[in-house]
Design goal:
Layout: H1 18-22, E1 28-32, E2 38-42, H2 52-55, E3 131-137, H3 140-145, H4 151-161, E4 165-172, E5 175-181, H5 187-190, H6 203-212, E6 217-220, H7 223-232, E7 241-246, H8 254-268, E8 272-276, E9 294-297, E10 302-304, H9 312-318, E11 342-346, H10 350-353, E12 364-368, H11 371-379, E13 384-389, H12 391-394, H13 409-421, H14 423-430, H15 433-478, H16 483-506, H17 515-543, H18 551-554, H19 556-571, H20 574-577
Parallel strand pairs: 4-6, 6-7, 7-11
Antiparallel strand pairs: 1-2, 3-12, 3-13, 4-5, 8-9, 9-10, 11-12
Bound molecules: flavin-adenine dinucleotide and iron/sulfur cluster (SF4) (3 copies).
Residues 3-4, 23-25, 27-28, 42, 47-53 line the site of one iron/sulfur cluster (SF4).
Length: 578
């Protein structure tokens, strides 16, 4: 058993700081590596070998569930989303925007959208009973200053009015950190997404103390930071603790963000006095082009990067070249959620689901994971316009809920170059709109290729089959053999060719034992298409009087797809089953 935290594989550390905060000997320091991400480094000489750091690590303990994690499935077997109503008095007023019609859709439990990746510690979409809502804060100013619908602010305000404390991310100069506030005015700096890793500092320790005094606490952070809080608290349930995470694309390097701000300052010969990662002055929509950064400089200059890809830092973020290693293999993308009470996100795809809540100024998706979360939601019903939606449908356009970003080779090249040549070099080489656009186009092409690769390869083999079959067929015609016999000879030659290449190249069947069986099946599949071919050719030549040289080409339109399906689902199915 581990006695102290030792980082051997960086993808297994999220930098949540739980180990550092819990260490009784204070012998763990968070140190930045060359990429600019922090990792714990323990002083072995001072270590008490108490194992507290290991027990507090959310990655090592991934899969443990805190005791308050009573998923809604217990209480709400159907998983239907419910209209939010004010709690105690059971007010008859409609909560939200007069939504009389409760959604009939099942919330969750579908699995078409399930990622091929492992979905973290959870059981996958098919198991979930998650309540989902489209939400807008009724305060227009607050919503404008929030990234999407301003849901965070509605909860945070209620917690503070209840005498509680809110912990969330603020940008302090060039550094994103988790801070606390028990003052509504403190929420201003917490609003809005900061697309950089933020430092939890000593938040978990402070939260533990506040919880002991029975005050309410709202903690907002990435899914891994929220998991870190629960592992720090020993997975104990606190009725006064509320947690909110968000659908998380990943977090870029804090050093990269600092260098980016430095470069703005040196180009403008003036300090950046305020910075917004997302500005909504041009509206809010899924293309994201309206978003983009906005900053003010000490010399009075203001800069608005519009459309969003004008900002080189944002290009690096969206192009996935600068994320923390753990974000490419995230263990906290799971449904049902083991940790947070709520998950918030941009409600992408809203215009198809609840267009009545889309005024292009920002709508949040709110997912509720716990009974406690469901109860508290009633407290803020009046602050929100909310409509229940089907869970599965609501997350369809938001793959980062379950899928980690892909770690392409250029991510590692980016950081190698960053370390060797510095910020200006990588900005020019990797972060331009052109580079971002090209990589996006390549990855779209890559995913299309991946999806149709087998069919394209099958088509190529099909063409070679046709060439062989026709060569034998025309040769037969040339020497005066009947077109049916010629075609049969051509067919036999093409089946041998098809078997060889489909086995080796298209379906890559490596099971020696099944080779004969597979050959027999290929023969039978092509036999069926042969019969169809003969019938079609008879119709084309005898009935429609199409020349016998053209007829074999025409019938391919029908036989290639039939052959593909038969080969894929039957002849070469064995390997898939294995
Ligand atoms: C790094 C990052 C990646 C994201 N990826 C996606 C995504 O792929 N899909 C999606 O739909 N939504 C994503 N979001 C969430 C989205 O940007 C909004 O935060 C969400 O829609 C909630 O908006 P809101 O208007 O309700 O609240 P807001 O007022 O925007 O508040 C959001 C809350 O997030 C906190 N926060 C901001 N930045 C950080 C940070 N770096 N670390 C920890 N907490 C932070 C704020 O303090 C605040 O409490 C991401 C957010 C971040 C920070
Ligand atoms: S084992 Fe205990 S003392 Fe040693 S580093 Fe971990 S928490 Fe600190
Ligand atoms: S994930 Fe958190 S607790 Fe685990 S080693 Fe990293 S910083 Fe420490
Ligand atoms: S993608 Fe995963 S590891 Fe990365 S910040 Fe988000 S929750 Fe943490």
């Amino acid at each position: 058993m581990n006695k102290l935290i030792l980082i051997e594989d960086k993808s297994k550390c999220t930098g949540c700081n739980a180990c550092m905060q819990i260490c009784p000997a204070k012998c763990i320091e968070m140190k930045r590596d060359a990429e600019g991400f922090w990792y714990p480094v323990a002083d072995k000489d001072k270590c008490l070998k108490c194992n507290a750091c290991v027990n507090a690590c959310p990655v090592i303990n991934c899969g443990k569930v805190h005791s308050g994690n009573l998923h809604l499935s217990n209480e709400n077997e159907t998983g239907d989303a419910k209209t939010i109503r004010k709690n105690e008095t059971e007010s008859d007023e409609k909560a939200g925007c007069g939504n009389e019609t409760e959604s009939d859709e099942k919330a969750g439990c579908g699995n078409e959208n399930e990622s091929d990746d492992k979905a973290g510690c959870g059981n996958g979409l098919e198991q979930c009973k998650v309540l989902a809502y489209g939400c807008r804060n009724r305060d227009e100013d607050v919503r404008y200053k929030s990234s999407s619908g301003g849901v965070f602010s509605a909860f945070a305000k209620e917690i503070i009015e209840d005498g509680g404390v809110v912990f969330a991310c603020v940008l302090k100069g060039k550094k994103a950190v988790i801070e606390k506030t028990c003052d509504i005015s403190g929420l201003e700096a917490m609003r809005g997404s900061k697309y950089v890793q933020c430092d939890t500092q000593n938040a978990y320790s402070e939260i533990k103390e506040i919880l002991a005094s029975n005050r309410k606490v709202l903690f907002v952070g990435t899914p891994c930071q929220t998991a870190g809080l629960y592992s720090f608290l020993g997975y104990r349930e606190y009725p006064n603790l509320f947690t909110m995470d968000f659908i998380c694309h990943g977090v870029p390097s804090p050093k990269l963000f600092e260098d980016y701000v430095d470069s703005i300052e040196s180009k403008n010969k003036s300090k950046v006095t305020s910075f917004k990662f997302r500005n909504k002055d041009k509206g809010w929509s899924q293309t994201g082009l309206q978003l983009g950064t906005y900053y003010e400089l000490k010399n009075g200059k203001t800069v608005r990067n519009y459309p969003a890809f004008k900002d080189r830092y944002m290009n690096a973020f969206l192009d996935d070249v600068a994320l923390r290693p753990s974000c490419y293999d995230c263990r906290f993308k799971s449904i049902p959620k083991s940790y947070a009470d709520y998950t918030v996100a941009d409600f992408w795809g809203i215009s198809k689901i609840i267009p009545e809540l889309n005024d292009k100024k920002g709508t949040s998706l709110l997912l509720v994971h716990s009974k406690k979360g469901e109860e508290y939601l009633k407290e803020i019903a009046e602050a929100l316009e909310a409509l229940p939606v089907g869970f599965k449908e609501s997350v369809k356009r938001n793959p980062p809920l379950l899928k980690s970003a892909v770690r392409y080779k250029r991510r590692d090249r980016f950081f190698e170059d960053y370390e060797k040549y510095g910020y200006d070099y990588v900005e020019k080489k990797y972060m331009s709109a052109f580079k971002w656009g090209t990589h996006k186009a390549f990855s779209v092409f890559g995913s299309i290729w991946k999806r149709f690769e087998q069919f394209i390869k099958f088509g190529i083999v099909g063409i070679s089959n046709t060439v062989i079959c026709l060569a034998v067929y025309y040769l037969g015609l040339l020497v005066g053999i009947d077109y049916r016999i010629s075609y049969t000879l051509g067919f036999l030659a093409s089946v041998c060719n098809a078997f060889y290449w489909n086995n080796k190249y298209v379906f890559k069947n490596k099971q020696e034992k099944s080779i004969l069986k597979a050959f027999a099946k290929v023969f039978a599949s092509y036999g069926l298409s042969f019969v169809i071919s003969i019938i079609l050719m008879n119709i084309f030549v005898e009935l429609l009087h199409i020349p016998s040289v053209i007829a074999p080409l025409l019938k391919l339109v029908v036989t290639i797809p039939i052959n593909f399906v038969l080969n894929k689902v039957w002849a070469f199915k064995d390997k898939k089953i294995k």
